[in-house]
Amino acid sequence: MVDKGRQSVRQLLMSLSIALAGAGLVWGMVIARGGEWFKTGLKFFTGEGAGLSLSWKVDGLTVFFLLILLIGQGLSSLYAIGYLKEYEDKKKNLWPFYANWFLFLGSMFGVLLANDGFSFLFTWEMMSLFSFFLVLYEHEDPQNRKSAYIYLVMTHVGTVFLTAAIMFLYTKTGSFAFDVWAGAAPTLTTLQLNLVFLAFFVGLGTKAGFVPFHIWLPYAHSAAPSPVSSLMSGVMVKVALYLFLRLVWLTLGPGPVWWGWLFLLVGALSATVGILSASVQSDLKKLLAFSTIENVGILGMALGSAFLARSWKNDIAMDLALIAFFWHSLQHMLFKSLLFMGAGNIIQATHTRNLERLGGLLKRMPKTGFGALIGIIGITALPPLGGFWGELMLLQSLWVNTSILSSGWSKVILPLFIGVLALVGGLSMATFVKWFGISFLGQARSQVAEKAKEAHPVQYITPLIAGGLAVLSVLWPAATLAIINLPLSVLRTGTAVGIGSAIGKPLYMSAVYLIIFSLLTVVVVTLSKRGKRRVTATWNCGSPLTPSMQYTASGLTKPIRILFSKVLGSQRLVKRDFGGTRYSLRSLSYEGRTKEVFEDIFYRPSIRGLLWLASQIRKLQEGNIHLYLGYLLITVIVVLIIGR
Amino acid sequence: MDELLTMLTRLLMGLGHLALILVVAPLLQGFIKKSKAFWQMRQGPSILQPYRDLRKLLKKEELISEHASWIFFLTPRIALASTLMAGLVIPNAWGWAPLSGWGDLFLFGASLGLVRLFLTLAGLEGAGTFGGMGSSRELFLGVLTEPALLLGLIVLAFITETTSLQGITAGLQSISPIFIPRLLAILTLGIVSIAEMGRIPVDNPDTHLELTMIHEGMLLEYSGPSLALLSFSEQVKQLLLIILLAQIIWPSALISGNVGLLGILWPLAFVLVKVTVLGFFFATVESLFVKRRVFLLPNYLATSTASAILALVSLWIIRGQI
Q1: Which is nearest to A371 in space by CA: A327, A332, A335?
Q2: Does B171 touch chain A (CB under 8 A)?
Q3: Which of B66, B85, B322 lies nearest to residue A513, judging by beta carbons?
């Protein structure tokens, strides 16, 4: 009886969420038709005059990210209809979830629309807060509480930097408006400009998940319920990247060349470290979260290439890098949402996140598995799906950037990033073959995997919709490019990049490739269809095959772990028990571990430093009343001197 | 009407391109086997043996593991289709590639990557140890070869100022054959090709000893037509890599205008000679060396990455841009 009511509440609220997303999309389509305001922006609710006024603006750049937000919202809300059912069965109160869900979405909306520092910071903090509550939703698990705590701390460290930069710009200009800042940016000294940039870089980079500010991301994104994970990984990190364009590209201006290098370096570092950590993970969702860091890194590299091209006045490379950035943002949102939904289905079916306990799920959950297969092809940046074409653009932009440079060592360093991207590609293939192959293929490695059942229809249809959208974006590259042209018209001047132009033409290849590839596959399949088939046992040298004979998740990427043991901080502990004798081994235990190297080389020293500082400051507090009176006296004297 | 005609011509030329690749691939395999037999002082199987093997396999019954799913069935088909996609960007005897535009050199590596993805998944299908072992090593190898392959090709792209493979081979004609960056890039690609072809010292294509195999490990569960398709796509891949190398070492001209029958047949004969020489070369390399341990491979493949970087540095130094 009660369940009936709760069920309708769930369906109603999530449908409302979908309807809002749909309405937003339709509204966007309608107003996107009439042209010029994309460049200048449409302002509304702008309080005139001085003081604190919240002002908002929509322009082409916002519209693109609103599209990502709304598609992400629609997909994850639809998925949540099925996913939340389990909480209902467990009699868990869902109202906190609903409330935070809508507030989280609303605050992301606000961040995208904000046109001044104050409303930006306000909505930004709301976004952090409500996503924190959502991460904390399954608070019964102490691990989740720890994850949420790390998230809260890190996100505030980021906000400190943002607040500092915003307050500085406010004192300089006397206004919070982005437009005023953009006007004042050229008047800042180089040092001031660079410091503001660095503050933005750290603040926004923390939210985006740039290495070394990434440590919260794998915890938070994997602790949250799956629809929230897909929103956080698919949409929230993009919101942070959007602000790089809004606050740095558009407000602070071109800046010195090293900004581009910084983006490129940190991007390459994030991509490599992220995917390396992902490749050795055995946790279904943590692996995906680490891969988000990788993709954010790739997006960072695209930004870097764009910034470099901008300072070198290389329009072709800049256009390519920007198209790569937006293309990849869109594709990553679709694929990462898809994969988190697939992970959610597996978790609900087996109640474990440990890859080592899964296996053979493709036979038990065929539709989830099919969706996930599309997802891994997309996320590993392989043709014929969209992930590849974004990376192609990025590689090409790095190439153009290099070949147009007249001289200098940059001509050697830039192409190395092409090698880094290839390395990341190889590693991401290993990662996702492991993610998919260990969980879906082979034999079940535990009872829970053996008893797994296919998820609620909504839960496998939604990933398939995401996959379908991804395929559509490749099949109809002209439309995708038209969408990408919206933000381009804000970020650059000149004519729009058409599908027929020299830059746009290769995107045409994406559709051609997909069609020829499908045709070839169909031809080969039909030609080789005939013939007898017989199902037999796997050949195992004649002995019976047990599930434990399969390669494990950690075993599959063990060579990579050995090769990169320094970066991964991998350790092995082997305990041999000879039971008193010298010759016969009684028992042997092996434990392999990896750790976050950045926690060791970056965070622990800084925490130790902070604690040391605190203990030094504590020395002032002797508990002696005379000393405190002395402090008061000194303070009064100092104040009098200063205020003289 | 004219447009339709050009499109139709291009389509026919593309189909001819694919047909040529398909027909020649097993022949090259037979030739390499024969050359190896020569070094081992054996008679060796006939040069046509790969065709016979394929025909025999295609007729046989197929055994499928009870644990395998539809991916197991799909993999050989995708592998062949995707290898052929890689073939579409490789310039043929006449220096022409059906798909060309900027960036298609990335397409070559990525298409081969798709083959690798499906093969490694299929290795895990059988739920046995050997398949997993093969997959694990193949993924490891992929991590090592991909940067080298891409960097090697990128250097050539910088030399010729285009990222299309067709453009690269056309552009290389006006570059001296002993231009140092070019030689270094060829070294890189040669080493990577050995790894990609699954030959000694990286992998041993002839062994079926479980502990040493990489590529064959993933195919262990395959039989009948599926095995035929997989071996066939491996032969096609081998041909593509060798043609690519041949075209880089000594490119043949892009045919222009009317040249008569002899003019059309001459480049074909020329490429056959080049491919034969290279095939014999790789057979010799395979006969001279031993297979290396998996964990010695990073050093071996790092050599190729290093030579690509060296090629890049020397290119800019020679051009006076550093």
Answers
A1: A335
A2: no
A3: B85
CB contact under 8 A, B103 and A392: yes
Q: Which long-range contacts (CB under 8 A, 24 or more apart) does A162-168 make?
A: A162/A121, A162/A124, A162/A199, A162/A200, A162/A203, A162/A204, A163/A121, A164/A199, A165/A196, A165/A199, A165/A200, A165/A203, A166/A117, A166/A118, A166/A120, A166/A121, A168/A192, A168/A195, A168/A196, A168/A199
Whole-angstrom distance, CA of residue B134 vs CA of residue B130: 6
Half-sphere exposure of A360 (CA within 13 A, CB side): 23
CA distance A599 to chain B (A): 26
What pLDDT digit, counting tens, does each position of A596-634 carry?
A: 788 888 888 888 999 999 999 888 887 788 888 999 999
Half-sphere exposure of B307 toward its Cβ, with a 13 Å CA cutoff?
Answer: 22
Determine whether A198 is exposed, middle or buried from the number of CB atoms within 10 Å of its CB (0-12, 13-18, 19+): middle
Measured N-to-C along each axis, helices A315-350 and A477-491 cross at an angle, to the nearest 10 degrees, of: 120
Strand partners, A177: A116
Q: Which two three-digit tokens encode residue A464?
A: 């398939």
Pairing of strands A571-577, A587-593: antiparallel
Give the residue from B130, B116, B115, B114 showing the smallest Cα distance to B65: B130
Which chain B residue has the Cα nearest residue A433? B121
Tens digit of each residue's pLDDT (9 = 90 or more) over A94-135: 888 999 999 999 999 999 999 889 899 999 999 999 999 999
Does residue A572 sit in helix, strand or coil?
strand
DSSP letter at A535 equals E
| Entry pTM | 0.93
Provide the CA A411 distance to its chain's centre, in angstroms: 30
